[in-house]
Fold each of these.
Amino acid sequence: MNFSNAIEIKGLTKRYGPVVALDRIRLEVRRGELFGLIGPDGAGKTTLFRLLTTLIDPDEGQASVNGMDTATEYRNIRKTIGYMPGRFSLYPDLTVDENLAFFAALFGTNLRDSHDLIDPIYRQIKPFRTRRAGKLSGGMKQKLALCCALIHRPSVLFLDEPTTGVDAVSRSEFWDMLAELKAKGISILVSTPYMDEANRCDRIALINEGKVLGIDTPQGIVSGFNAPLFALHGDDMFGLLKAARCYAGVRTCYPFGQTHHLVTESGFNAVRFIETLSAEGFSAIELYPVEAGIEDVFIQRMENESGQSHIG
Amino acid sequence: MGSFLSFVRKETLHIIRDPRTMLVVLLMPIVQMTLFGFAISTEINNIDFAVVAPNRTSAIRQQVERLAANAYFTYKGFISPKETDEVLRRGETDVVVVFADDYDRKTLSSALSPTDGAAIQLVFDASNPNIAAAGAGYLQQVLSVGGPATLIEPEMHLMYNPQMKSAYNFVPGIMGLIFILICAIMTSVSIVREKETGTMEVLLASPVRPIRIILAKMIPYFALSCINLATILLLARYALDVPISGSTAGIVAISLLYLILALALGLFISTIADTQVMAMLISGMVLMLPVIMLSGMVFPIENMPKILQALSTIVPARWYIAAIRKLMIEGVPFAAVLKEFAILSGMTLALIGIALRKFNDKLE
Amino acid sequence: MNRDKVISVKNLSKKFGEFIAVDRISFEVERGEIFGFLGANGAGKTTAMRMLCGLSYPTSGSGTVAGYDIMTQGEEIKRHIGYMSQRFSLYEDLTVWENIRLYAGIYGLNRRQTLRRTVELLDRLQFRSEIRTRVGSLPLGWKQKLAFSVATLHRPEVVFLDEPTGGVDPVTRRQFWELIYEAAAAGTTVFVTTHYMDEAEYCSRVSIMVDGQIRALDTPTLLKQQFAAKSMDEVFRTLARDAKRGE
């Protein structure tokens, strides 16, 4: 076993009745890495977190954290990990400081020992230290929960959808904090349903319906997109979407922010395409090649996985 | 130990931060005790009596006059034997004093044989058992003093409450119920709440053994129940005038044992239930009903069908209530409840064992 | 009154004691628009949306939704709008058909309307085979699409969507937006909140709330010009960074 890996997962499978929540997952998180699990709700992210935090046991395969097996050495693992579950996991009727004090006691430590680690985050919620956790804003709760998860200086941090339901600015701040923690040598496994957050990770795994669709650096994932990709814009966006899908040589077309993304066969003739659409009465058509994003790759892999086109 | 104390502190904060629940918990015994206490008035001011006497001999008249002259009794008149039932049922009188046909002979005869029956029969409306009990005693006293002979043996027919239920008997019942309610329901709900909100995940993923967290949870509720125990005992003694004739130490000892048992029950429930609603329901169905129905609190166990009697033996409250009754009302020494104490101890150990075995340090 | 202004509010405010949750907001939404209602956590979006849905009355200000006065005709408004949120949408323990029938009943559709619209709805979603399936066993994306279709079953003038696509996979998210486009093209006004900034680009117009006030309101293209930003994400961050208050 390679001890330079913070997390190693081999052939991990978990079933709930007939539902296969995780299907032969294999991945490694290196020491000091910020690793992202990117996937929608129901992809199996939470199940994977529970397996790795030793809360449940796998049906097949095995996983290790810091070189210790999650099924047999779980007591030792629990001393070295920090976990922030997807749900709000603080006591809403206790104040900020009372929550911190409790979690410190839980890990047999105190705030001073982890001061350097927590203080940059704690400073932001300090003005509300006597407020009950239930009365904090979403962003504040998240920061408090992170403080609580860090209080015993874990070497591996598990964060299950820490940014779900949080506005874009707070989300961005949260990722800044994670970058700082990583700089202090903590290995972090974080999940998110927001594809745009993938670029903040060192490496990511795309995960859907219990299967890993790809593991690589964000750049590596993006460069794995293997078809011509165009952005399409015009006056009647919805009309364009439908028209483009009917055009031979267009594999799929889907809305992508302010444009539509057009995935085509190789040898696609863009000029002919624009002419045809103009002839159909569309105006102000713009078509230009674009670099694929994580989301484009996710969509492509999802379709490869199920062997059919979901869009268009 | 430091960390354990801070767990206890945290649980205590949960209780204090929810003042409404805490108030309910602390007031519940007071409300229940006063309700039962007032519903069953312990004071006897005025007892109405009617008289059945086929032969109104002068001796009988004399007795009736003596009763009527007493401040505590109000004479309602002579009635025929057939009317007895109806008059009582309509509440026109509290007691009917029935003089035997041969009252004079019986009271004069010095060689009365037991088969002859009593000279005076007292028929009570015992729906109010305190009046019946106290009134009967007092009536006997007045009648025997005034009688020409000492051999009056009034017979009591307590018509509507043959078990002589009284406030006394309700006190052990209330104790059996309240401790189960507070300890089991409150602990199970507070553990299940952590499952529901997700904090349990963090607790389990920490190096602390769940048993310490669980124990820390039980302590504040145990303390709360001790306050309730004190409240109930004080109310029983000074507001309801329950004699508490047996050993107080014995009562406290067996009550503390019962508290621990109820806490273990709560823990056990928390391992089965996934939601707070479920915990409440299980507590309600599995604990409340048997405690009320099968413990002897409301219905006497001796009168139950055999199968229910057998079932009642596994209801802890049955043994607790029986023991408290003995200690508190009958005033027997602690040695007399050793059997109950042993059974409760066994149940407690078994429950703790099962609950701890079931309480996993994993999520499933 | 202008029939084409489906939502029209002026100086709408809501106070909770000293706290001004919504501070004199004014805007209009036209028929068939997809109106994006953005804001940081705690900016007052939810409070504003509740007032527009007739669920709570404003402290001051005036306005109409679907032609009804929000100060006095809350009940009428409720009958003429649709509402769907990520948290509450359908009853998981009922089947697809039972959910549809329930909603049809709530909005007073007769039997023939119910049946016709149900068939239409199921065909549009390619859902016919799932009519007897319990909603709880459907994948999240399907549920959300179904919930949207059910929320518009009674052909409301305007449908309010509160973070309808949270946690949904990127493919289903797009399918969901196509449903929104279709509904808008058919004349239903759509009022939507979201945390996905790319979805803000799909809207006809977008308003951004900060600290209880609307700080910006325009088409995505013009907003990006105004703030010299490349994306709506940038626009949003520029505005939300100045937020004074949390939730």
Amino acid sequence: MAYSDKVVDHFNNPRNMGSFKKGEEGVGTGMVGAPECGDVMKLQIKVQNDTIVDAKFKTFGCGSAIASSSLATEWLKGKTIEEAQKIKNTDIVQELNLPPVKIHCSVLAEDAIKAALADYQKKADGALTEAE
Amino acid sequence: MKLPIFLDNHSTTPMDPRVLETMLPYFVEKFGNAASRNHAFGWAAEEAVESARKQIAKLIKADPKEIVFTSGATESDNLAIKGVLEMYKEKGDHIITSSTEHRAVLDTVKSLEGKGKATATYLPVDKFGMVSPDAVRNAITAKTILISVMLANNEIGTINPVKEIGKIAKEKGILFHCDATQGVGKIPVDVQEMGIDLMSFSAHKIYGPKGVGALYVRKKNPRVRIASQMDGGGHERGMRSGTLPVPLIVGFGKACELCEQEMAKDSARLITMRDRLEASIMKDLEESYLNGHPTNRLPGNLNISFAYVEGESLLMGMKDIALSSGSACTSATLEPSYVLRALGVGTDLAHSSIRFGLGRFNTDAEIDYTIKKVIEIVTKLREMSPLYEMAKEGVDLKSVQWAAH
């Protein structure tokens, strides 16, 4: 299968690859996929004042899965929580020019974004309840 | 050293220049139809075909009259299985085969089953990918008319105990078909000693041209008969009609002759290179697992699963080396290799497998480059893998509740 230049670029030069330190504040983590299915994505966001100031990923999967998550971290940085909710898998498909057989990679990336946001929200709500 | 490097010699092989040389006169000068019995053009073509038939028969210790030319091993598999089922349908309709056969065998059997023309038993294999002769014996019923077990597997290179299976087939009076596509020319094959009644193989896996193959059909003890699957001029003793592709057959013959003459030397060289590749990779990369039989496998085969990294991304990271993977992402079906699954390899590790297929024209420098690249990319992708990170933190990945999708 031929890959688009953008997929190759993200694969060779992944953006924001890595993990935040354990227990770092304002971090939401989303982990989606399964090893049996051949792809697992871990996406993390760091939020300050409702804005995503940093994002990181680690992905087990094909080149398109790696590129989708790398792109997602790029897009997340600087967005508010509300803006981040609006990222759609179809945007990723379009940007990376993914073929039909790789659309599931973009779906997984959207799921990872949603999971990271939900995790952050849960932690933030928890912190709020404690403060009260 | 020239890039890209071809390390996918199970899929096909580059043609040996010596093979091409023998083929060239048969395109423009000696272009006759081997079936033209009454002029010099036809005689020259027929002579070339018969000489190739001898070269091919010699490699597998058969009689030249037992060689039926086809378009390739897929057609040979179809012809053997469908031909036997149709010819001997009065005797029964049961086929015994194995779960790791090539799709050309499995899908042929399944298609016959689907049409109600056959019943089948798919034998499991052991953890090395080997079919047990006892399992073959136990699967035999009064209705069994054919056993079809491959010589060597295309993914993991494991060599089956074909001789023992042949003995059982003979003892029970059941025909034995062997798909020997990966084995012929690489390891010694003797259809007499192995008790094979029908055998499929092709030219392009042994440095010959694409588009030609053969089916060995035993002529005596017993005389095997098959119903033709292609109607027409009655070529190949009525078993396969169609004008013979003379240049391809000439090349096939030469390729077989070269294999026969150079097998010992080639295979010793391949084993040395392959073992070095294996040892160097395994030494530097923890949690790399060999798939297939540790010793009883094809000289040029090496199949390894690299835990925590996915096969297609490995291939993408080594795009100047032509390799293949059992990962679902490299197949049209999105299912990981059924061969690895049949060995009991977990789905996760099946996704992480790479097949190295070494051949006659690979060099030590290419192996050095490959070793370096593999270690580099596996290390890089493990750094990127959340699974590797979790495993390093001591998380048991099997205990994690994954959200399967």
